[in-house]
Structure formats: C-alpha cells, structure tokens
Automatic annotation (TrEMBL):
Keyword presence, Ion transport: no
Name of the protein in its database record: FAD-dependent monooxygenase
Keywords in alphabetical order: Monooxygenase, Oxidoreductase
Organism listed in the record: Actinomadura luzonensis
Residues in FAD-binding domain copies: 2-328
Record flagged with keyword Endoplasmic reticulum: no
Pfam families (UniProt xref): FAD_binding_3
Amino acid sequence: MTDILISGASIAGTSAAYWLRRHGFTVTVVERAPAVRQGGYKVDIRGAALRVVERMGLMDAVRARGTGMRVATHYDAAGRPVATMDADLFGGRTGDDAEIMRGDLNELLYGLTRDEVEYVFDDSITAIADDGTVTFERSRPRRFDLVIGADGVHSNVRRLAFGEERRYLRHLGHYISICSVPDPLGLDREEAVHAAPGRTANVYSTRQDHGVAKAAFIWSAPPLATGHRDVERQKELVAEAMSGMGWQVPRLLDDMRKADDFYFDAICQIRMDRWSRGRAVLLGDAAYCASPASGQGTSLAIVGAYVLAGELAAGRGPEGYERELRAFAEANQALAEPNLKGMVVPSRLALWFQLRMIRLLPHLPGRDRMIERVAGPIHRAANAITLKDYLDG
C-alpha cells in the first residue's frame, strides 16, 4: 500500500496527510471547497492530542495563536451581569490544554503538508470501485490503494462505502449555529452568555479579533426538516428558535442574517460498528463524531489521524486502527450528553441554580472538588489512550 487518497482538507485530513507522509506514503487530498477552509469557531486541544501536536513540532505555533480567552460572563435578559467565571473553567480546560481558532489550526497543518502532498481543491469523489479506481466530479479517474474519508459528519465517502447516514447518525436533541458578527459589547477575550430554558446564546471575541465576534446559538429541538445546504431556511430556524429572548439576542439575529460564514447543524454523533469497508476507511467526525457538545472533536481528529497513519505503516491496517482507537473514541463520545445539560438548561429553576453555583464557586470550601466535577471527566477522556511511538517502531 503506497498511494492514499484523503477526502477532506480539514483537521482530520491535513493531520492524516502529515503523518502518512512521515511514514513514506504518497498522499493526495481532495477537498470540495476551493481552498483550505478559514475561519470557524474556537476549538480545544487536550490530553493525547497535545502530545501528537508536540510530535508534529507545532506546539509553540499553536500557543502563539491561542485565543487568550480570559473570562465568561452570564447576563440576564435586561443586560445585567449575573455571574462570572474563569474562561478555562467555562470551557472545561485544565493544565496544558490549548484553545485555538479552527481556521488557524487548519492553516498550520496545511502549511506542514502543502509542499509534500498533492491537494486537489474544488472537487469531490463520486465513486470508489473495488479495485481502488476513484472517479471525481471534475478530475479524471485515478487508482488508489486506500481512500480515507475525513470529510465530516455528513461524509461523502461514508455514504459511498457504507450507505445513507441515517443508519449511523444519532441525534442528541439539540441544534447549534455559529457565525461572525460585529462585536456588540466591545469584548476583550471574553465570552458573553445569555440563557433561557431550552436555549442559549453566546458571543465571544478572541485575542486576534478586531471588532468582530463569533455568535453561537444552541437550543433543544427534535430533528428539523432542512437540507444541509439550505442556508436561508436554516437562518429562519435559528431566528424562530431564539425568538423572544432578551439581552443582545435580537441584534445578534439581525447580524446573523447577513453573515457569510454561517454554520448550522444538529448536535449529533456518528456511531458505527466498523470504520472500514473495502478500499475505504473513515476518520474523525466521519467515523466517530462526538458532537460539539463533547468539546473533543478536534482532539479526536488529531489523535485518530496519528493512530491511523501509524497502524497503516506498521502493517496492521484499518483493523489495527480500530482496535487502538475505539475505546478512546467512545470515552469522548460519552461526554456529549452530560455536557449538554450544562450548555442548554431545561427550566428556570435549573437555570437559577446553575447561575447561583457559578456565583458561589469562588467562595465554596469544596471549590477544587467542584472544578473536578466539571473538568475531570473531560480530562480523563482526553487521556484515555496510550500513544505508540510509530516512527521508532
């Protein structure tokens, strides 16, 4: 096995391209977008993923581009601050955990690979034959030894190799939308949050932002009827879900309607009995999406890419990759539903209790135990794998 095609030039795909090249494979990456995707929201790198990033020689660059977030403040409907907490605790970060904008991380990973990996943009796979011949929307057919689907929760490779996604998608009863907006509060590395029963609005500005913020809307809802690319309908659904909320939410919704980097999706997971079939193997969200609620999607992609490349190089193939990674993936998927209970609170009483605990936390004698309850499960899941040193045999 020497020639490998990766579908998707995001975190999982670019990470896999790096490690596969280190092991001597010939790598091609095909990406539907016209260039490596910029922008996006902030993401965390924790536990085992930190060690992989260190082995890539990127840790200093990641730290230099860190978000620098300082504090998270909850506001009531009238705009009064009602509770404040440290940004790391708000994000469940401990120790050396790093936070970076998704686009910045992808740019760093692309920079490591662009001179040694063939990137084919503005194209997509249409079929994968048993003999490894791959046909594309635009390019001529080519033959590969293996096709890696690193193309996200709505993976095209998964559909081609395994069938329709409804067989593998587990809806977690919530939706999320994120976009760039003019900073409404003059935020300085701050999160600003307003919550109501069943829905939460969050706006934040990082160290790199200048008058621009990210607005995030999360709410509980059953599966909604909308196409993945029907942006106007999706914006309508966000506005309907957030209708009647106070604080800055009406202004944020007005700005959302004009945003050109709008993201919308169900908070969901991908659960599969196996991640490979024939010439195809799945990586990252395509195989084991843990959902944004887990806080571990990026770390799963980075660690998964490292393990997949290493197991292929060791001759153990996709089967070895599954054996090494499955327990780690499942441990991180298990974070999502408990985390959602804190992200979207179901009742006014529960919301009152949450805000009161945030206000009291700095003064409680059991503060460290309370912090462990928040960050401990994430930390344990992030470290729930022993990484092999594949390059040293």
